[in-house]
Structure formats: structure tokens, C-alpha cells
């Protein structure tokens, strides 16, 4: 498993679990639920934030938020 923050632009993965319970509810409300496929659409020029597509829409996450999401990378 790797963290969502480690994916490069165009990378895809399936959400497996979360590290931070405080951020867990916020991410779940935004559609980041275990089993959902995510794709990194864009990375800001300085690397933060990143834009991902999840559950049919685009979402912008800070790297510290993306660092709390564990994924199984899809090849």
C-alpha cells in the first residue's frame, strides 16, 4: 500500500484505509470512501495542493490530507 500523496499525475488507485481519524469524517463526506477509485488529475507547480477525481467529481486536497489516505495503486 502507498499514500495518495505519493501518486504522480495520472496515477490511479483504490482507497483502502485512513490514518487520521479526525480527518476521516471530512474525507468520507467528500466521497473518499474505502473501495472508491481515485485518479490524480493535476499537481500544483509547487506540489501542493493536488486535484483528484473521486466519485464522479474533482476534489482539491492538500498534501497533508492526501498523506492520510492509504491506497492500492492501479497499474
What attributes characterize this protein structure?
75 residues, alpha+beta, 6-stranded antiparallel sheet, 2 helices, 43% strand, transition metal ion binding
Topology record:
Blueprint: E1 2-3, E2 12-18, H1 21-29, E3 37-43, E4 50-54, E5 57-61, H2 63-66, E6 69-74
Describe the protein in words.
GO terms for molecular function: transition metal ion binding. Keywords: Iron. The chain is of the alpha+beta class and 75 residues long. The protein is built from two helices and six strands. The protein has one domain: Ferrous iron transport protein A (FeoA) (SH3 type barrels, Roll). A hairpin with a 2-residue loop joins β4 and β5. It is globular and about 30 Å long. The mean pLDDT is 91.
User: Mind telling me which CATH architecture this is?
Assistant: Roll
User: Strand percentage, roughly?
Assistant: 35-45%
Spans of at least 5 consecutive residues with low confidence: none
Outline: globular
DSSP helical segment count: 2
Q: List the domain count as a whole number.
A: 1
Number of strands: 6
Most strands sheet: 6 strands, antiparallel
Question: What Rg do the Cα atoms give?
Answer: 11 Å
How many angstroms does the end-to-end distance come to?
13 Å
Structural class: alpha+beta
How confident overall, as mean pLDDT? Answer: 91
The top-level CATH class is Mainly Beta
Give the ordered list of helices and strands. EEHEEEHE
For the largest beta sheet, what order do the strands appear in spatially?
Answer: 1-6-2-3-4-5
State the helicity in percent bands.
Answer: 10-25%
CATH topology heading: SH3 type barrels
